[in-house]
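Subject: Sanity check before I submit

Could someone independently write out the structure tokens for this chain? I want to compare against mine line by line before I put it in a report. The sequence has 466 residues.
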Amino acid sequence: MKYNNQKDKESMKKLWKGRFTKATNSAVDEFNASITFDRRLYAEDILGSIAHAKMLAKQDIISQEDADKIQTALLEIKNDIEKGNIEFSIEAEDIHMNIETLLTEKIGDIGKKLHTARSRNDQVAVDFKLYIKDEIKSILNLTDNMLTVILQMAEKNIKTVMPGYTHLQRAQPVTLAFHLMAYYEMFERDRSRFSDCLKRADVMPLGSGALAGTSYNTDRIFLARELNFAEITPNAMDAVSDRDFAIEFCFCASTMIMHLSRFCEELILWNSKEFSFIEIDDSFATGSSIMPQKKNPDIAELIRGKTGRVYGDLFNLLTIMKGLPLAYNKDMQEDKPPVFDAADTIKNSVLIFTEMLSKIKVNEKNMKNAAKYGYMNATDAADYLVSKGVPFRECHEIIGKIVLDCIEKNCGIEDLSVDELKNYSDKFEEDIYENIDINACIEAKKSFGSTSQESVERHINSKSDK
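---
Independent answer below. Compare away.
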């Protein structure tokens, strides 16, 4: 990514060269440069620079004519970048100095006026916040689409009975809609976290200078309006050294992909022949290179695997920041790769997960059979005895013995006759069967937020109305 002729090479003399008597070692140029990754901030950098030029003219720090030339040239550079006509230079170190160099080549000394009253420290901070704000908005849109798909799937499966699990052991009967709405709540919390992160990223650092502000009569409120920030940072030192917004972004991404991973784990289990609760569509599965019968849930597995990657991005950034004195330190150049990776990974994962989920086929019969033969009406049988005046702890023991007997006989509790049940307690009557029917067990749940059809429908409707 180097310029191809000597004229270009000469133009790459460091913009900070005045203090130095020696050129930097070529290995230092390679090691020191961030253009290989921060080039993706070109649009944000140009946007911030245009706003800065406008502010400089408004405050009579540069002329309006110069500001107009700077803005026109920056837009031309942006267009050239997007057309692939620009080859960035390692010698210019980063996206900020690459664009400034290109600007100066295009309009001469006028381009050198742009950096008046700003530093790369506040420049990169505003670029990074602009980037993260846009990424959050994209993630929120993708999350909304995912929540819609989950809601639609839940609406179709309000009466689909399945086992609810604890310790991956069949516990109590629920509906698939109830199970899906549990994930809806998780992802809605993720959405809320990203929305909160957006509020804290929406505070503009531009105009803070290197760390102490500037002696020029700038207008930071004007800059905030131009760049669509809600507030401006009140402390210049904090503004240039803060990366909390980036750490919080990675935390939000880590939490969301953890939820995606949990959901994918269940889909992988449910898709197996041992469960056969669902079938993942062929378009979201792959085959084996050696075993012709295989249909592998690779997409769900990959999302599950990428969770560690996003966790790594979070810990990478936390580790970078943990020992830094105020204010800016070069270590902070390494803040962008983990954020870029977390953003790309979470967006791609949410997008493909949503598409995969929308095409999943539900095997209602297998789900219901698993609920019926898992003794998941045992708690309801115990509750029945409680209603007859038996203390719960005695009920628990009685039903435990009945389940043990049923396991030996290979039958369900509901398959035992009343006379057989009376061997365990004389409180059993014919009405026991209506209390331990699987659907009755589900509908018997009266508490707010329960698995009953009325409760689940109320939950779904509350989300549909938003």
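---
OP: Matches mine. For the report I'm noting this point. Residues 120-156 form the longest helix (37 residues).
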